[in-house]
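Exercise: predict the structure of this protein bound to pyridoxal-5'-phosphate.
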Amino acid sequence: MKYYSLNHNSKSCLFHDAVKRGLAPDRGLYYPESIPQLPQSFFKEIEKMSITEMAYKVIKPFVGNQLLKNELMEIVSETLDFDFPIVEITDDIAALELFQGPTLAFKDVGARFMARSLKSLNRDGEQKITVLVATSGDTGGAVANGFFEVDGVNVVILYPKGKVSEIQEKQLTTLGKNITALEVDGVFDDCQEMVKTAFLDSGLSSINLTSANSINVARWLPQMFYYFIAYRSLKHKNRKLVFSVPSGNFGNICAGIMAQQMGLPIDHFIASTNANDSVPRYLETGNYDPQPTIQTLSNAMDVGNPSNFIRIQKIFNNDVVKMKKNLSGFRYTDQETKKALKEIYDLKGYIADPHGALGYLGLKEYLAKEKEEQYGVFLETAHPVKFLDTVKKTLKLEVPIPERLKETLSKEKISIPIRDYSELKGFLLN
Ligand SMILES: *Cc1c(COP(=O)(O)O)cnc(C)c1O
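Solution:
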């Protein structure tokens, strides 16, 4: 498989180069030259395959021959080394829990896959690589955890000061060793912009920089796995599947749509957003008009200009009518988010997190208008404990903190304050 730049001003390249670079030299996102089609037999036999075998078959065409079969099998198996439970909330709505990994967020899947792939691809240890990553909350922790103590890789994380939760901050500032956290005086989009600028800066060409944001194909594509896992578990229900994805940078939902394009029978997608609603507005008006980031309770989705939206546009050939047949978008306020947390708790005693709660709301709104044969799954993208304050205050109950988090919380935060791009550059060159 070759990947080309969606800006069309760089040469196509294979998986290894796309992963190593993150972004193409012309600043475009990499996109596969074709979308592999899975045969009917794959879906007939899906329940008989192991999860590793299934996921291997999904990702193999994207990786090509750049990793050996046993290497890729091992990477996939380690990546998916935790559970993906489906919890029924009503007869028509279920939560798909993606937070059973080491940092309690779905981003563990992409981060673990990318870290392990990069390590294997770089097996000759030829060059030292610096992974530069902007985080709105959960990416930083997942990437830090995925790459911790990986030889030959340094990780530099930019996060917006005071705009991530305490647990999120601790997860990315307490590891040390090959992980450094930079605390940016700004919002997530400022962090993301600095990362993009660094990739373009010829003054940094002596450093091998790559990105571990969902712009990187090795972070983005493995997120397809859990849509297949959910389908495999729900197939026996014989109902049309609808997925509602709490969306910020739109990598997660874009992976789901990619899975669908490979043949996975998904009837419809719902992008549920907070006040950062560039995509729902696009679906209404046909006009993409990104706005500055607004801070909300679902902070991991506070993204004004989602990077991956261009990939979604590509999938639908920039045809908004075609897109709307497959994708709906809804936005909700913080007030509505809190109400949803209560509603989900009252229905089933289930404690959701603010992001998952948005997913639930989008699903409910969509299903209310549609036919009954549909079964809706919303993605529970993070463990509620990561948003302890909101969940505790809204539900008026204690959420027990998992053991593995307690240790992280007891450690001292170490970060370097950064105000602008020149300070980032200075840091990288040192
Ligand atoms: C990152 C994140 C999201 C948004 O995912 P995107 O792929 O950026 O759309 C949603 N919820 C949580 C908890 C996250 O960490």
